[in-house]
């Protein structure tokens, strides 16, 4: 089945967004403390597609070897997973462009992986501030991308963006073809 990976800096709101999209509060475990999600967790939605919750990157208190383990584990998953349709990159809408997020987008671009941007926690500041930060992020990405990927503005608190993200996933699902095993003649 088609799957969509939700990824971003630790504490950006991945698990909260997943719960908001699935309309199930305790589905993915959330926490005020960064580093909550430690594994690749699959959640089956409508018996037809998967949301994938991943551990956050850039967790400042993780040891160097733990960070390296994370990189290997997640990069391998993203690079090799055939049913992965799109990487949903979560960016904190309150912040100016962060190097770690730009680097991660560049890595996805180098690997030729499809991704969209999701600007989270939009309830935390004015719409104007959110728009300014998005404009800056797009500008920073434009130095390495010819085309800027689609983006969404969300809030797990107010449910902003829920319909838009789900419609996007539904559209991609329509195009998903189940890989068929090759029959040897
Ligand atoms: N106000 C507000 N708070 C949010 C929103 N999304 C997440 N939070 C809060 O941000 C904190 C982190 O949320 P999580 O969903 O656990 O973040 P995560 O990205 O899954 O974190 P890790 O699993 O540690 O990488 C929690 O205290 C959430 O309540 C949002 O849209 N609005
Ligand atoms: Mg999490």
List the helices and strands and how they pair.
Elements: E1 2-8, H1 14-22, E2 41-45, E3 49-53, H2 64-80, E4 84-92, H3 99-111, E5 115-120, H4 127-141, E6 151-153, H5 162-175
Parallel strand pairs: 1-3, 1-4, 4-5, 5-6
Antiparallel strand pairs: 2-3
Guanosine-5'-triphosphate is lined by residues 10-16, 30-32, 34-37, 55-56, 120-121, 123-124, 155-157.
Protein described:
With about 180 residues, the chain is an alpha/beta fold. Helix content is about 35%, strand content about 20%. It has helices at about 15-20, 65-80, 100-110, 125-140, 160-175, and strands at about 1-10, 40-45, 50-55, 85-90, 115-120, 150-155. The chain has a six-stranded mixed sheet with strand order 2-3-1-4-5-6, sandwiched between helices. Strand 5 (about 115-120), helix 4 (about 125-140) and strand 6 (about 150-155) form a beta-alpha-beta unit. The longest helix has 17 residues, at about 65-80. The protein is globular and about 60 Å long. The two termini are about 25 Å apart. The model has no long low-confidence stretch (mean pLDDT about 90). The structure holds guanosine-5'-triphosphate (GTP) and magnesium ion. Guanosine-5'-triphosphate binds near residues 30 and 156.
């Amino acid at each position: 089945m088609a799957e969509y990976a939700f990824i971003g800096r630790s504490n950006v709101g991945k698990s909260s967004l997943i719960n908001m999209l699935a309309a199930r509060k305790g589905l993915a475990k959330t926490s005020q403390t960064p580093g909550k999600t430690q594994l690749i967790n699959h959640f089956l939605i409508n018996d037809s597609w998967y949301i994938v919750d991943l551990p956050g990157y850039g967790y400042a208190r993780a040891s160097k070897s733990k960070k390296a383990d994370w990189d290997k584990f997640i990069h391998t998953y993203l690079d090799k997973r055939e049913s992965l349709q799109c990487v949903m990159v979560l960016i904190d809408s309150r912040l100016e462009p962060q190097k770690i997020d730009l680097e991660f987008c560049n890595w996805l671009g180098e690997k030729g992986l499809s991704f969209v941007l999701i600007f989270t926690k939009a309830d935390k500041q004015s719409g104007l501030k959110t728009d300014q930060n998005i404009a800056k992020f797009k500008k920073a990405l434009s130095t390495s991308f010819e085309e800027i990927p689609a983006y969404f503005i969300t809030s797990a608190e107010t449910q902003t963006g829920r319909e838009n993200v789900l419609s996007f996933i539904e559209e991609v699902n329509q195009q998903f073809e189940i890989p068929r095993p090759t029959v040897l003649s």
